[in-house]
Every structure is written in C-alpha cells, then in structure tokens.
Specification:
Structural class of chain A: mainly alpha
Oligomer: heterodimer
Strand order of the largest sheet of chain A: 1-2
Keywords (chain B): Signal
Largest interface: A-B, 38 and 43 residues
Number of domains of chain B: 2
Strand content of chain B: 15-25%
CATH architecture of the largest domain in chain B: 3-Layer(aba) Sandwich
Pfam families (chain B): Bmp (PF02608)
Protein name (chain B): BMP family ABC transporter substrate-binding protein
Number of strands of chain B: 14
Organism (chain B): Paragemmobacter amnigenus
Helix content of chain A: 55-70%
CATH class of chain A: Mainly Alpha
InterPro entries (chain B): ABC-Purine-Binding (IPR052910), Peripla_BP_I (IPR028082), PnrA-like (IPR003760)
Shape of chain A: globular
CATH topology of the largest domain in chain B: Rossmann fold
Shape of chain B: globular
Number of helices of chain A: 15
CATH class of the largest domain in chain B: Alpha Beta
Number of helices of chain B: 11
Strand content of chain A: under 5%
Largest sheet of chain A: 2 strands, antiparallel
Distance between the termini of chain B: 14 Å
Radius of gyration of chain A: 22 Å
Number of strands of chain A: 2
CATH superfamily of the largest domain in chain B: Response regulator
Structural class of chain B: alpha/beta
CATH topology of chain A: ABC transporter involved in vitamin B12 uptake, BtuC
Radius of gyration of chain B: 20 Å
Distance between the termini of chain A: 21 Å
CATH architecture of chain A: Orthogonal Bundle
Amino acid sequence: MVRLEKRPSPSAFWQWATPVLAVVLTMIAGGIMFALLGKNPVEAIRTIFWDPLFNEQFAAYSRPQLLVKAGPLILIAVGLSLGFRAGIWNIGAEGQYIMGAIFGAGVGLALYPVETRWVFPLMVVAGVFGGWLWAMIPAILKTRFNTNEILVSLLLVYVAQNILASMSLGLLRNPEGGGFPGSRNLGQIPAMANPELIPGTGMHWGVIAAFVVVIAAYVMLQRHILGFHIKLSGQAPRAARFAGVSPQRLVVLCMGISGALAGAAGLFEVAGPSGQISIDFNVGYGFTAIIVAFLGRLNPIGILLAGLLMALTYIGGELASFMLSLPSAAIQAFQGMLLFFLLAVDLLTNYRVRFGAKREVA
Amino acid sequence: MKRRTILKGGAALGLVSVMGGRMAMAQGLEKVKAGFVYVGPIGDGGWTFQHHQGALAVQEAYGDKVEIVWQENVPEGADAERVLTQMALSGCNIIFTTSFGYMDPTNAVAAKFPDVKFEHATGYKRDHANVSTYNARFYEGRAVQGHIAGKMTKTNKIGYIGSFPIPEVIMGINSYYLHAKKVNPDVELSVVWAFTWFDPAKEADAAKALIDQGVDVIASHTDSTAPLAEAAKTNGAVIGFGQASDMADYKPSPRVSSIIDNWAPYYVKRVGALLDGTYEQADAWEGIAGGEVEIGEITDAVPADVRAEAEALRDSIAAGTYHPFTGPINKQDGSAWLAEGQTAPDGDLLGMMFYVEGITGEIPS
C-alpha cells in the first residue's frame, strides 16, 4: 500500500528536483502524444528543445529570440512571485501589461514628433505608472473593502482589453494609417524605439531590465526587511502580524510592484518587438508569467531559468509546428503538461511517499 | 488588429494591376517549398480553413515538385516576424502570409531575405521587390447576398455583423445594403460591431442582438459559424449566409447561400510561376470573374425566381457588365459620391470610410 506522509518541513532536495522531474515527465507524456499523432516523438522533442539552441540552420537566429520572448515573462513573473510568496494573488498582470503599454505609448505619441532622447525614459516612467495604477485598483479595493484581489485583478484584464481596442481605433490610432486600427509604429520613431541594443543578440532594454530585476529581487529577499516580511507573511501570517508587518501595506506594496513591472514589460514590448498599439497587442505574457513564477519556485533565479525554458518551448514549438506539421493545439497541450506535472510532482516537496501499511504507534 | 483586409486608399491608387516585369526570374525552380502562415486554426471552418484548402490545392497540382509547410494560430506582431524568419531559414522559396496584421512583419522579414518571395493577403505595403499582395473583391458577393436579403426579409429589417470598421468591411456593408434597398425600398439595415475576426461567443451575442431587434436576415463578416447556429434556433424565422467558407452544414436553412473565398487558383498560379520562371511582383484583386469569390449554392429555401435573379446578378458581375457600385449613389450625409452611370474607382473602395445614403448609425471610431 502506498500512502503519503507529511514532511515536517518542505524537502530542500525536492524543491529543486521537482521542476526537473516535471520537464522529464512532460517530455515523456508529450512524446506519447506526438507518437499518437503519427509523428516521430524523438524528432519532435529534439525540434522543440534542441534545434532552437543548436540547429545550424536556425540557432543563430533563435537563440537571441529566446531572450526577446523570455524578457517580458521574467520581468512579470518576478513581480508576481513577491505577492505569491506573501499570499497575495495578482492574476491580472495581463491587464497591467496592457495598461503599461498604453500609458507608455500614449506619452510617447503625445510628444510626437519631438526628437529628444528624453522621450523614451519618460515613456518607461509612464509605462511603469500605468501598470502600477491598474494594480492599485484591486489593491485598494482589497485593503478598504476586503474584496477578493484574484477576481478583481482578473476581471480588470478584460476592461484593459476593451480600453486597448478603443485606443487602437480612436485616440492612439495612426492618423496616417488610412483609417486602420493601430497606432504609429514606435519602433520606426528613433526617440521612442526600444531597439536591439547589440545586433544579433536580441538584447533590448526590457531584457536588461529583466536581468536587473532578477538580481534586485534576489538581494531584497535575502537581505532586505521587506523580503523578510514577504516571506514571513506567506509562511506564518500570525507571526508576521506579531512582528509588526501590516498586511494592508504589504498588499499595496506587492500589488504595486508586480503591476509596475508588468507595466514596464508592456512598455518595452510595445516600443520594441511589437512596435505598435493594436487591438491584439497582448498575446498572453501576463498569464504565462504565472506559470513561469511557479515553475521557478517563486525564486528570482529559478524564474530566470523557467522563463528561458518557457520561451524555448514557444520557439521550439513553432519550429516543430511547421517542420513536422504538428497542430498548434498539440504544442499548447505540451506546454500545459509542464504546469500540470509540476503541480502534480510538487506533492513530493511536502509529502513523503511511504510503502506498506501505517505502523501503529504503541 | 486581427488579420487581413484592406489595401489602403491612397497607397493603392493605380496599383491594382500586375506590376510588370520588375523582377522576372531568369529561370524556374526545380522544386518549390511554400510556407503558409495562418492567423487562426485550420479547423475554424472559415477564413483559415479556406487558405489551407488553397495550400492543399498547390500540393495537389504539383505533387513532388512542391513541399508545403504551414503554421496555424500565429499572433500578429513580434511572433509573426519570428515565424516568418524561421520559415525563410528553413528553406521556403515563397511564403504566403494570410492576414492583414502580418503586413509590417512580412515587409520587415522580406528585407532580410531578398531571394524568398513573400505574398501578403489583403495588405497594401510592398516595400520590397520580393513582396506581393493579393486580395479578393468580396463586395461582389455582398451584392448577391443583399439582393437575396431584400427579397427574403419579412420584417424589412436586415442585419450585418461587422468585424472591424475598416474599408473592406464597410465596402461589404454598403454593397449589401444597396442591393437589398434596390429590390425592397422599405428595408432597414442594422449593423453590430463584434471587434473580432473569430470569436464564436461574441459572434453569437451579435446575432442574438440583431434577432432581438426583429432582424430576420443576417450577413456576417466574421469567421465562425456561430451566427448561423443562432439563426438555426429560430425555427426558420431567421436566415443567414455562409461566410468565407460554404458552411454547408447549415443548408438548406438558415444558410441560404454563401460567399466562398477560393484562394486555390491564385496559390496554384503563383507557385506555378515560380516553377516555370515567370514569377513577377503583383498586386492582385480578383473577384467573381477570377474565381476567388464564389457564390455558394442558393438553396431551395429561396424561391426559384429570387434564386434566378440572384444568379443573374452574379453572372452579370462576373461578365463585367455590372459593377455593384454604379451611380447615382450618395454618401450617408447626402453629399454626392457617384454620378448617374459612374462606377466606383478602386481607390475609393479601398479607402471607403463612409456609409452610403440610407444606412442609419455611425461608423465607430
């Protein structure tokens, strides 16, 4: 008989081994799925995980693209992880990402055609502010009226999407675009562009910001009193209160930081890889970042690796999709398996698997 | 913006003919690898499905001499640029990008791969010699639908589910309304904007809203079968049309006819030109005559005389003896657009941002 026994404290070994195990299990289950679809599973897995990094034909292009795709994921996920650690659930990063892009692009376009190098930094500030502001709505509602921040932040995503559509069709529409929805292409306006800083590396300001934030979050969690309060609130809320942590303040802080970082990610994306505000500007980074945060164990370094891994499955998935004619739904299912297995094997962190009947204690 | 549509007004003026000779290839290719980039899933039953049928027709036509690859559900923007680059790197000779929103990515990637041909559906930018554009004159099909709608409505209220307020859609609304009005002066048109190309739930809501207003004939400019599914719940009181694809599952009613996008002739022609060395940069805008726009079977739910008239209308458009926008036509505000006997210049159509006289409501902005 197999049974589970709760560990006195979470296993340090399994905490780090479960993501690896989840990836391995995903490869096995995904391979079976690909085989059932009539594809060679080994070739499919190789195309997803190996070719973007080492295939001669693609790698020179795909490797830098990993950073482009991982940058916003990491930036958002680090912010979310702080709240998640403290038991504050910001599920609406997608909306904050949209609002950051709108605020940032809005400031830039309002100044058009001013050509000074101060435009871009201003846009970054506006983007951060936009994301922060959008996150403050659920934060204030929670602290004042005790509403559920999960629901409010999630529903605000849909509000943000409608504002985005309205901006694309109205206020921010390119006046020289012949009436078509979408703003001017910020990437083509030097003062507003967030370009690739070193050609062929994929590095843009957003990627640099992501790395800086990873380091800052790591230091904060290890050394700063706020990091201690966050961790304490998650692990022992009562003890945290005795230690003088104000839950209200923590909600505002964590929601604010995660909103600001999501807003920054949106701004860097709209000024860089995406280039313009359009009705379908958001492609789900805010939601995928939730997976990345958990895959990375809510740890900044873990999130860095998880973000890169997630980006790899996207880019490799695209390759597999057209090289092997895999349906895109199969790639999405493959990515879904990753989270599924992670949550499943996470059990091992907190529980020990025991074989045999429970011994009676005399 | 999700996908396709539109060549732009000014930019498209005078470009609606094949631009000759600029980059004729010296000789054909032995084998062609053709890539197709789709904005939706192949199984959408509409827009993307039809493009994929075109891709399969290419394979069918040339067998071993072509290899086709495709990718579905490609978001517009940064992701599209990466997918296009990877396709070009994988050795594609020609890449078809089948949605309006791929316009900038297509031109950006085309600059980096001058030896690869890029074909962008419904756009207007041809920044490089290796970028061609193609679209279809869907407004011709809308004329036929309008005729049927005007004859079939009992409440004198007809509806149109708009996707985005852009010239291609407005062109369709105007054509639909003009031809309904022509056979039924009492007809009133309601337009509902869904702001999506493909979202079955939103499309169904739009259809419900129209039905609640008393509309009994619905045309849609979105891609799913949801509006027909809503009409089917009314026990024959409300009819509609297949959009992009035939949507034959809803025959004979509520689906009484359809506009079928047939991209196969164009795809076969372009890949063939690459094989035999006659490929040239192009800006194609074909309609019923060129086979790109097909009118799906008009079912028995439509009386025989109406069917005969609709088919005659279709044939006169195909023969070039009738243009769906023939004056006198005024704009919504009463100002003159086309004089008696004058037909609409392509440039006017491609930049059309106004309703014709008689349509109530405003184009959202």
